[in-house]
Amino acid sequence: MPCTTPAQVNTERGIPLAERTNIVLVGPMGAGKSTVGRHLAARLQMPFVDSDRELESRTGVDIPTIFEYEGEEGFRRREAAVLEDLCARCGIVLATGGGAVMRPENREQLQRCGLVVYLRTPVTLQLKRTARDRNRPLLQTEDPRARLEALLEVRDPLYREVAHLIVDTDREHLRSTVRLIARQYRNECAGNRPGTQPGKGRAPGARNNQKRKAARSGHRGA
Ligand SMILES: Nc1ncnc2c1ncn2[C@@H]1O[C@H](COP(=O)(O)OP(=O)(O)OP(=O)(O)O)[C@@H](O)[C@H]1O
Ligand SMILES: O=C(O)C1=C[C@@H](O)[C@@H](O)[C@H](O)C1
Ligand SMILES: [Mg+2]
């Protein structure tokens, strides 16, 4: 099967990893989902889509404005609708927003639509990378460190739950993170895209959550 069609995404549970064609990046603010995603897409010659930017272009306003008028709940509703549409696409690199894993229906969609990579990042590094940016409403607080810690405590188990692969971004340079994910994707999934060949061997440094989970639960797949 060359591509997971939207109908199958909506109806089939347990699509094997080898039949997924998207790459989905999850992780906290400042993990580098947008940055890694853009480079990864260029390297693999795949379209890059950032769900935060997609949401902004659909609404015509920026994320802080959505939070201001509709609150976080309104933002999450819109985010879920965008993710549902994007998960129906085929052969894209998708950078999600940091809170995309909060809704169970999002987690299910993301897990089924691609190779999900958790870019794990310590709070200190998140703080450094987001320090000058005013575009993240959840960080416009007196104590951004405490906010990031609280968010990570809730979300880390959810990122882990949804991920097929976990990459520590503090140990890898941007370029090696990109190379590592690209290699893993070629190994696991790229045979599904026309004109691509599965690669050889596992990328060093990659932690394959899928296989660890499979080893525990005795099955492979979603
Ligand atoms: N691996 C990296 N090495 C060095 N700098 C990085 C790396 N990844 C991201 N950055 C820098 O950190 C900042 C935040 O990265 P980015 O916007 O990609 O994070 P994000 O995960 O998409 O965050 P959000 O969830 O808020 O969208 C950017 O300025 C980017 O240049
Ligand atoms: O971590 C979060 O909840 C968010 C992260 C950003 O990517 C945006 O999606 C928004 O600022 C919310
Ligand atoms: Mg981003």
UniProtKB/TrEMBL annotation:
<dbReference type="GO" id="GO:0004765">
    <property type="term" value="F:shikimate kinase activity"/>
</dbReference>
<feature type="binding site">
    <location>
        <position position="136"/>
    </location>
    <ligand>
        <name>ATP</name>
    </ligand>
</feature>
<keyword id="KW-0057">Aromatic amino acid biosynthesis</keyword>
<feature type="binding site">
    <location>
        <position position="34"/>
    </location>
    <ligand>
        <name>Mg(2+)</name>
    </ligand>
</feature>
<feature type="compositionally biased region" description="Basic residues">
    <location>
        <begin position="209"/>
        <end position="222"/>
    </location>
</feature>
<dbReference type="GO" id="GO:0009073">
    <property type="term" value="P:aromatic amino acid family biosynthetic process"/>
</dbReference>
<comment type="subunit">
    <text>Monomer.</text>
</comment>
<dbReference type="GO" id="GO:0008652">
    <property type="term" value="P:amino acid biosynthetic process"/>
</dbReference>
<feature type="binding site">
    <location>
        <position position="52"/>
    </location>
    <ligand>
        <name>substrate</name>
    </ligand>
</feature>
<keyword id="KW-0963">Cytoplasm</keyword>
<comment type="function">
    <text>Catalyzes the specific phosphorylation of the 3-hydroxyl group of shikimic acid using ATP as a cosubstrate.</text>
</comment>
<comment type="similarity">
    <text>Belongs to the shikimate kinase family.</text>
</comment>
<feature type="region of interest" description="Disordered">
    <location>
        <begin position="189"/>
        <end position="222"/>
    </location>
</feature>
<dbReference type="InterPro" id="IPR027417">
    <property type="entry name" value="P-loop_NTPase"/>
</dbReference>
<dbReference type="InterPro" id="IPR023000">
    <property type="entry name" value="Shikimate_kinase_CS"/>
</dbReference>
<keyword id="KW-0460">Magnesium</keyword>
<feature type="binding site">
    <location>
        <begin position="30"/>
        <end position="35"/>
    </location>
    <ligand>
        <name>ATP</name>
    </ligand>
</feature>
<keyword id="KW-0479">Metal-binding</keyword>
<dbReference type="GO" id="GO:0005524">
    <property type="term" value="F:ATP binding"/>
</dbReference>
<dbReference type="GO" id="GO:0000287">
    <property type="term" value="F:magnesium ion binding"/>
</dbReference>
<protein>
    <recommendedName>
        <fullName>Shikimate kinase</fullName>
        <ecNumber>2.7.1.71</ecNumber>
    </recommendedName>
</protein>
<keyword id="KW-0418">Kinase</keyword>
<keyword id="KW-0067">ATP-binding</keyword>
<dbReference type="GO" id="GO:0009423">
    <property type="term" value="P:chorismate biosynthetic process"/>
</dbReference>
<dbReference type="Pfam" id="PF01202">
    <property type="entry name" value="SKI"/>
</dbReference>
<feature type="binding site">
    <location>
        <position position="98"/>
    </location>
    <ligand>
        <name>substrate</name>
    </ligand>
</feature>
<feature type="binding site">
    <location>
        <position position="155"/>
    </location>
    <ligand>
        <name>substrate</name>
    </ligand>
</feature>
<keyword id="KW-0808">Transferase</keyword>
<keyword id="KW-0547">Nucleotide-binding</keyword>
<comment type="pathway">
    <text>Metabolic intermediate biosynthesis; chorismate biosynthesis; chorismate from D-erythrose 4-phosphate and phosphoenolpyruvate: step 5/7.</text>
</comment>
<dbReference type="InterPro" id="IPR031322">
    <property type="entry name" value="Shikimate/glucono_kinase"/>
</dbReference>
<dbReference type="InterPro" id="IPR000623">
    <property type="entry name" value="Shikimate_kinase/TSH1"/>
</dbReference>
<keyword id="KW-0028">Amino-acid biosynthesis</keyword>
<dbReference type="GO" id="GO:0005829">
    <property type="term" value="C:cytosol"/>
</dbReference>
<feature type="binding site">
    <location>
        <position position="76"/>
    </location>
    <ligand>
        <name>substrate</name>
    </ligand>
</feature>
